[in-house]
């Protein structure tokens, strides 16, 4: 979204610079917004894109996508490092046509780490090294230094003889020909690039884009998966359209909508998730025990959620990196672990809740109150009665004024429903009339 209303004079200007502030952690939403920046630059016929950068890095998958956008851009891109261009920020900066840095800023430290800031195994570092090297080569920068920003074992004589990962100050970046100059302001950048007379257009991110970016943050995606699975679980414990189901549906919409808009979640991937949920429901309500349908449902559910987070094109996984698989699996595993912990933490509380007690069997069934355990001889197949409590699948039924415990043959039966006995060993089994 552009706050500046472009007048005739803007369009008449020969030079137009679209300025974008990249000041946040690099996440999937960042790649989406940058794509919109370049689309806007094309529509405005901008002659340059200026990215004012200050980031400590972020998700490598998003950074790789942004790097590709810069390399493919027909519009020259200038990066002005205002403070930090660390990790993923260094990779993105390397893809720019020109890099300028303010005094006191730095660039580098691109080692791939996990959420605890611990370096990942070498296979991940190798992938990052190759990206940094190829990007530097494409833009005419020293590929050896680019690799040394990832791995301290890559030694550049006179720079990191001690074997430490390279991070360059603004002046060092000029000396080693990574940066094109140290500047005091944006105006100086424009002057050096012969753009002092250019019309500047600031790109402002809309609140909708910010909201979508927030939804696509891995932590938020994990919470949405937790709410989706947790809501389904509690709804299965208390069948009927209620609050848990509403939470699950809302979480699913918020999870899949931005993924779908971004092009990550395809129609068939969402369908895989729905089939997985359907198989789980069939296993619980239709098929006795837990077998092939239940296991298949879990596999399809996990597989569909995983695919929706990866940049695959159908069954073409050429753009899928080991790091993207690692991070996606981590989100799903943590979410499912959260569902398990949530169940363990709330099971006692749920059992004592007045709301839950409305749907569960509580108390004792005394003979003086009309209850009976004589189910074998007194109850014959074909006898009819009615459910006096919900059968989920077990509950209470009444036959000829006597209350018995019984189990639904399939699914669950709502209190007040007429039932017929279909079996009586070892317990009474009924179905709706």
Describe this structure in words.
With 433 residues, the protein is of the alpha/beta class. The protein folds into three domains: 8-206, 2-enoyl-CoA Hydratase, Chain A, domain 1 (Alpha-Beta Complex); 217-357; 367-432, OB fold (Dihydrolipoamide Acetyltransferase, E2P) (Beta Barrel), CATH 2.40.50. Helices cover 46% and strands 15% of the residues. It contains 15 helices and twelve strands. The chain has helices spanning 8-12, 28-44, 60-72, 88-94, 122-138, 143-148, 170-175, 186-192, 207-215, 218-237, 243-262, 267-285, 292-308, 322-352, 354-357, and strands at residues 16-22, 48-55, 77-86, 98-101, 106-108, 167-169, 199-202, 384-387, 394-399, 402-408, 418-423, 429-432. The strands form two sheets. Strands 1, 2, 3, 4, 5, 6 and 7 form a seven-stranded mixed β-sheet that branches. Helix 4 links the parallel strand 3 and strand 4. The longest helix is centred in the last third of the chain and has 31 residues, at 322-352. The protein is elongated.
């Amino acid at each position: 979204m552009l706050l500046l209303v472009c007048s005739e004079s803007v369009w008449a200007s020969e030079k137009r610079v679209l300025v974008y502030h990249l000041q946040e952690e690099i996440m999937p939403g960042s790649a989406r917004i940058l794509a919109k920046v370049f689309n806007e630059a094309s529509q405005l016929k901008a002659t340059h894109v200026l990215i004012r950068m200050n980031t400590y890095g972020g998700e490598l998958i998003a950074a790789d996508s942004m790097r590709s956008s810069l390399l493919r851009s027909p519009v020259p891109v200038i990066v002005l490092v205002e403070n930090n261009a660390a990790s993923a920020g260094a990779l993105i900066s390397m893809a720019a046509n020109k890099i300028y840095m303010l005094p006191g800023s730095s660039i580098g430290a691109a080692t791939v780490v996990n959420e605890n800031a611990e370096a990942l195994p070498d296979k991940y570092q190798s992938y990052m090294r190759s990206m940094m090297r190829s990007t530097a080569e494409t833009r005419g920068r020293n590929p050896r230094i680019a690799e040394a920003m990832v791995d301290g074992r890559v030694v550049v004589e006179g720079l990191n003889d001690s074997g430490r990962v390279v991070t360059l100050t603004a002046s060092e970046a000029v000396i080693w020909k990574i940066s094109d100059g140290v500047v005091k302001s944006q105006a100086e950048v424009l002057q050096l690039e012969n753009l002092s007379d250019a019309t500047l257009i600031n790109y402002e991110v809309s609140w909708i884009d910010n909201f979508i970016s927030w939804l696509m943050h891995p932590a938020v995606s994990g919470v949405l998966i937790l709410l989706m699975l947790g809501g389904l679980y509690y709804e299965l414990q208390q069948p009927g359209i209620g609050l848990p189901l509403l939470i699950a549906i809302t979480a699913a919409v918020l999870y899949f909508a931005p993924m779908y808009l971004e092009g990550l979640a395809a129609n068939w991937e969402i369908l895989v998730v729905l089939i997985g949920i359907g198989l789980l429901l069939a296993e619980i309500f239709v098929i006795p025990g837990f077998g092939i349908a239940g296991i298949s449902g879990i596999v399809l559910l996990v597989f569909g959620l995983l695919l929706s987070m990866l940049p695959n094109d159908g069954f073409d996984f050429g753009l899928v990196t080991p790091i993207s698989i690692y991070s996606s699996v981590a989100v799903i595993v943590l979410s499912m672990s959260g569902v398990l912990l949530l169940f363990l933490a709330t099971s006692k509380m749920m059992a004592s809740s007045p709301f839950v007690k409305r749907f569960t069997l509580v108390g004792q069934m005394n003979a003086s109150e009309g209850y009976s355990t004589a189910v074998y001889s007194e109850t014959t197949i074909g006898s009819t009665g009615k459910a006096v409590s919900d059968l989920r699948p077990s509950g209470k039924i009444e036959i000829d004024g006597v209350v018995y415990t019984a189990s639904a043959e399939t699914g669950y039966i709502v209190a007040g429903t007429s039932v017929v006995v279909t079996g009586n060993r070892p317990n009474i089994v009924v179905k709706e009339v």
